[in-house]
């Protein structure tokens, strides 16, 4: 029996057992704020998994643009009937440029158009849109002029989508940049780019790049606009970056190092992506990190969408599922210094070393960094020892900076219990809890934080997603059941906002042609994107966040499963609204009377409903809104009558008088 059928049967039985209790009234005490909801309550978690950065959010269309993949010509194909041995060679200048050592040397011998060239396949193809300008750039050097470049775009059948000619004019030993543009004549999801060499002579080329002109905010070399828009539309309180297991790396050489991701893009060091080899069933040998999307761009993205930045740094531990490699405690200083320097990069005056670099990249003002994570999903005494060193050094210089600490990989068990105890004894600012469990766990844990201690360490629900099959299964789906269970669980997070300060679903993005992990919040291909049912749950909580929790009860009790209902209420001081969220997890419709005490209501409000009768329903590229919210006007009086459809998430928003 599938998990969807099993859950539906359980709901049917529960509906019959609770028939008598259905007569109860939902009571809201609108004048009694029990907890402050932090502006950071609902956020987003970004990791470069599932081609989330290169081939995804980072809008570069050329794969392996500087020949730094393990196989230097991966992504490239030589073409032309005059391609002979030695006409195109990869050279390595490691001593001269260790960050970007390789380049391509082309030697032409009176070649004509089409005689000698390369084709780049892009990231599972290139998404090209009719009428959009595409910006080509290349670094080159040549001892003398004589070479003409032919740049073209072709569809999957080899038909031209546009082309241009570029003549490099500079000579000498220095590298120079040349640019050109192509306006596409048709739309094609699986295009490729051709680069032909005509003439007589030698030319070295590197950083061969192609960007669409319609990037987010039209920034040259920027981000894919539709993907950023999905994030902006959530109005998140924070964005966590760069992960995730990316932070730890397969070993410490493979760990994410933020200093390698800032400065001019041609000076940023390529890195193999740790998800390249993680799952043999989804092998992605062409998965690397160009770091064109680096820490400056992450901070800029956070600022653009009005979110607080939450960077996570390596604490001297590689992934404990891979190598579990450690830096000895007496060699932690460089790792700690990276953390201190990051605060300076984000917030420092432009006279400081790292603040000056930030300003040179186009942002003299501070990014207002207020929090940072130390370690990702690390555990054991070895983590606690290293965390203590980090905390001591960071707090000594930046006492107001909030630190996020890992509670390991699971929400229970010996590993969790040990870390929870140790972190609380250290008075940790934020304890990062992760939950990848089946939907039944999420329903059952809607009261998880009701009994947590108040006035001590706060919780960051840093990674969570209901698994329709099982964790790490490629069969997991972003179906309506997973989203509904997450909505039920999130009512418990909001209700306990005095304990839970932050929460984020993970992972964020997945490329339909190049994913490693499911489920994921937003799915993309080279031209399209859509939000899953889980996305709309996250968005609705974030857009209806409120500022303070107020009591909502059914027959005097917290609503966390009675009558298959899960509910929470809050007020929004900025808009003077009352916001009520109710999940009906039953397969039967439900009608409830809501009585609001302590405040008078406006005559009308809104009712937003996310619903589908099929718990297995999913959104797709062809049907992107099969599960999507709909808003209608709601009439109110002394009480509110709420008629809920089966399997529905309902949000009432009413002005307070």
UniProtKB/TrEMBL annotation:
InterPro entries in UniProt: Alpha-L-AF_C (IPR010720), ASD1_cat (IPR055235), GH (IPR017853), Glyco_hydro_b (IPR013780), Glycosyl_Hydrolase_51 (IPR051563)
Signal peptide from the UniProt entry: 1-21
A Pfam family matched in the record: Alpha-L-AF_C
Keywords: Glycoprotein, Hydrolase, Signal
Domain Alpha-L-arabinofuranosidase C-terminal: 462-648
A single MF term (Gene Ontology): alpha-L-arabinofuranosidase activity
First-tier enzyme category under EC: hydrolase
Catalytic activity: Hydrolysis of terminal non-reducing alpha-L-arabinofuranoside residues in alpha-L-arabinosides
Family according to the record: Belongs to the glycosyl hydrolase 51 family.
Stated name of the protein: non-reducing end alpha-L-arabinofuranosidase
């Amino acid at each position: 029996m599938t998990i969807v059928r099993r859950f539906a049967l359980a709901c049917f039985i529960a509906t019959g057992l609770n028939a008598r209790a259905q007569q109860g009234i939902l009571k809201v005490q609108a004048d009694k704020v029990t907890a402050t909801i932090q502006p950071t309550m609902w956020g987003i978690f970004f990791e470069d998994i599932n081609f989330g950065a290169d081939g995804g959010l980072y809008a570069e269309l050329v794969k392996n643009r500087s020949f730094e993949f393990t196989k230097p010509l991966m992504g490239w194909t030589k073409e032309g009937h005059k391609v002979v041995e030695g006409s195109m060679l990869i050279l390595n200048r490691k001593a001269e440029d260790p960050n970007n050592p390789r380049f391509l040397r082309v030697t032409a011998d009176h070649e004509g158009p089409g005689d000698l060239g390369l084709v780049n396949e892009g990231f599972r193809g290139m998404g090209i849109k009719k009428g959009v300008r595409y910006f080509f750039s290349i670094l080159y050097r040549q001892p003398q002029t004589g070479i003409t470049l032919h740049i073209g775009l072709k569809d999957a059948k080899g038909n031209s989508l546009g082309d241009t000619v570029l003549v490099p004019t500079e000579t000498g030993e220095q590298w120079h940049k040349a640019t050109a543009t192509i306006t596409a004549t048709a739309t094609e999801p699986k295009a490729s780019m051709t680069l032909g060499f005509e003439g007589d002579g030698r030319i070295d080329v590197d950083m061969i790049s192609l960007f669409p002109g319609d990037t987010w905010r039209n920034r040259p070399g920027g981000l894919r606009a539709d993907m950023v828009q999905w994030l902006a539309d959530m109005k998140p309180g924070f964005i966590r970056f760069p992960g995730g297991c990316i932070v730890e790396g397969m070993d410490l050489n493979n760990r994410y190092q933020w200093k390698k991701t800032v400065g001019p893009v041609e000076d940023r060091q390529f890195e193999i992506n740790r998800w390249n080899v993680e799952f043999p069933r989804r092998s992605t040998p062409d998965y690397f990190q160009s770091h064109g999307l680096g820490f400056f761009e992450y901070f800029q993205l956070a600022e653009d969408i009005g979110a607080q930045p939450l960077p996570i740094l390596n604490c001297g531990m590689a992934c404990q599922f891979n190598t579990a490699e450690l830096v000895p405690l007496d060699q932690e200083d460089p790792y700690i210094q990276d953390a201190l320097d990051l605060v300076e990069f984000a917030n420092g005056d432009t006279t400081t070393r790292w603040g000056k670099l930030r300003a040179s990249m186009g942002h003299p003002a501070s990014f207002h960094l207020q929090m940072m994570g130390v370690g990702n999903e690390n555990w054991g005494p070895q983590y606690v020892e290293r965390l203590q060193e980090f905390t001591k050094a960071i707090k000594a210089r930046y006492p107001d900076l909030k630190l996020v600490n890992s509670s390991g990989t699971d929400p229970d068990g010996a590993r969790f219990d040990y870390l929870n105890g140790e972190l609380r004894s250290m008075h940790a600012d934020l304890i990062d809890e992760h939950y990848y469990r089946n939907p039944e766990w999420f329903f059952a844990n809607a009261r998880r934080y009701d009994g947590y201690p108040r006035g001590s360490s706060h919780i960051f629900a840093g990674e969570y997603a209901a698994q329709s099959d099982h964790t790490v299964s490629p069969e997991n789906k972003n179906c309506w059941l997973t989203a509904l269970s997450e909505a039920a669980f999130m009512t418990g997070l909001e209700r306990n906002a005095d304990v839970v300060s932050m929460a984020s679903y993970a992972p964020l993005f997945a490329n339909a042609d190049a994913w490693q992990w499911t489920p994921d919040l937003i799915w993309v291909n080279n031209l399209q994107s859509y939000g899953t049912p889980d996305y709309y749950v996250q968005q609705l909580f974030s857009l209806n966040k409120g500022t303070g929790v107020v009591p909502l009860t059914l027959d005097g009790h917290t609503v966390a499963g009675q009558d298959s209902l899960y509910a929470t209420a809050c007020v929004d001081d900025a808009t003077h609204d009352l916001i009520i969220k109710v999940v009906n997890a039953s397969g039967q419709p439900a009608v409830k009377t809501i009585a609001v005490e302590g405040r008078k209501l406006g005559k009308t409000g809104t009712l937003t409903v996310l619903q589908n009768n099929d718990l297995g329903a999913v959104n797709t590229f062809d049907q992107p809104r099969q599960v999507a919210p709909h808003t209608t006007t709601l009439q109110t009086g002394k009480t509110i009558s709420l008629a809920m459809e089966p399997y529905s998430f309902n949000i009432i928003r009413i002005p307070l008088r």
